[in-house]
């Protein structure tokens, strides 16, 4: 129902109480974890959740645990009031879980998630004493792709998602396939740790010009955005070539890298991997996904294309 006002919960104990109360009434709960600054891609995840559950919780939390010390989390865009309005417009969101700090355990020497003297939020690392020190790692799946250049990223992602699962206690959780490696890592974590949660991957959503929806797109200049279209265009070209019989991964990879470099981008990685194991492939003989991360200006963009031949 459009214009429905979601209940905003900031306390993790109240969130857990709300979930358990509704589960006691035999209500099913879906969770859509986000870091806010919502766009149509996020809203599509909510619509996917509504297909599977009676109630939907959207979490909005910029997770400091997935930022390394040299990554300034204060640059991550935020518009909480705008997000709430978008959720009202899409309808069907029952709760917005918006905690201040899920690593605060009431200790002064806990997790570094504070302001510097210049007023900026800083990326956090574990501190001494009684601070946060427990992490979830999906050891093999986290190593490649984004894990190569962001070694603590998936440790932070898996840990915060596990915490959200323990707080919200959903039946279903929906993740976007744009973050393909993240989706597979969460699926594996749920399997390995026996969470009683169904993890659904929702299809990547693109703007009309083909650029994958991302909260970071707002930081692209008009020229950078035009150049960044080389990512999606070259991926579509590679998919078409593979479907026509070009299954040599090196040749497909080289064509995508060349297109991005010619457009003025800097490639972090461009890899064709197995859809399940994320192992790098030399030749496409089974369902594969072509994953790309590239910089345009100071914005790092990720995209991917599933290839089924």
Automatic annotation (TrEMBL):
<comment type="pathway">
    <text>Cofactor biosynthesis; (R)-pantothenate biosynthesis; (R)-pantothenate from (R)-pantoate and beta-alanine: step 1/1.</text>
</comment>
<dbReference type="Pfam" id="PF02569">
    <property type="entry name" value="Pantoate_ligase"/>
</dbReference>
<dbReference type="InterPro" id="IPR014729">
    <property type="entry name" value="Rossmann-like_a/b/a_fold"/>
</dbReference>
<protein>
    <recommendedName>
        <fullName>Pantoate--beta-alanine ligase</fullName>
        <ecNumber>6.3.2.1</ecNumber>
    </recommendedName>
</protein>
<keyword id="KW-0566">Pantothenate biosynthesis</keyword>
<comment type="similarity">
    <text>Belongs to the pantothenate synthetase family.</text>
</comment>
<keyword id="KW-0547">Nucleotide-binding</keyword>
<keyword id="KW-0067">ATP-binding</keyword>
<dbReference type="InterPro" id="IPR003721">
    <property type="entry name" value="Pantoate_ligase"/>
</dbReference>
<dbReference type="InterPro" id="IPR042176">
    <property type="entry name" value="Pantoate_ligase_C"/>
</dbReference>
<keyword id="KW-0436">Ligase</keyword>
């Amino acid at each position: 129902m459009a214009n429905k006002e979601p209940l905003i919960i900031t306390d993790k104990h109240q969130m857990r109480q709300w979930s358990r109360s509704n589960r006691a009434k035999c209500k099913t709960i879906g969770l859509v974890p986000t870091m806010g600054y919502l766009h149509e891609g996020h809203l599509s995840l909510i619509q996917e959740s509504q297909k599977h559950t009676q109630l939907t919780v959207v979490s909005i939390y910029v997770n400091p645990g997935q930022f390394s010390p040299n990554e300034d989390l204060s640059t991550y865009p935020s518009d909480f009031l705008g997000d709430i309005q978008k959720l009202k417009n899409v309808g069907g969101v029952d709760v917005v879980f918006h905690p201040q700090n899920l690593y605060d355990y009431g200790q002064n020497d806990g997790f570094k998630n504070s302001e510097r003297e210049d007023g900026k939020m800083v990326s956090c690392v574990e501190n001494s004493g009684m601070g946060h020190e427990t992490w979830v790692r999906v050891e093999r799946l986290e190593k490649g792709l984004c894990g190569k250049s962001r070694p603590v990223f998936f440790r932070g992602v898996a840990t915060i998602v596990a915490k959200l699962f323990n707080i919200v206690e959903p039946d279903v959780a929906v993740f976007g396939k744009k973050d393909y490696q993240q989706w597979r890592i969460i699926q594996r974590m749920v399997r390995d740790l026996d969470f009683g949660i169904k993890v659904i991957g929702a299809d990547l959503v693109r703007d009309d010009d083909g650029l994958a929806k991302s909260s970071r797109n707002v930081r692209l200049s008009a020229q950078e955005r035009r150049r960044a279209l080389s990512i999606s265009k070259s991926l579509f070209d590679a998919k078409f070539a593979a479907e026509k019989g070009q299954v040599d991964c090196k040749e497909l990879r080289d064509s995508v890298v060349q297109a991005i470099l010619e457009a003025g981008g800097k490639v972090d990685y461009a890899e064709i991997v197995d859809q399940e194991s994320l192992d790098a492939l030399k030749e496409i003989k089974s369902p594969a996904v072509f994953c790309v991360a590239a910089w345009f200006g100071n914005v790092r963009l990720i995209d991917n294309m599933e290839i089924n031949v």
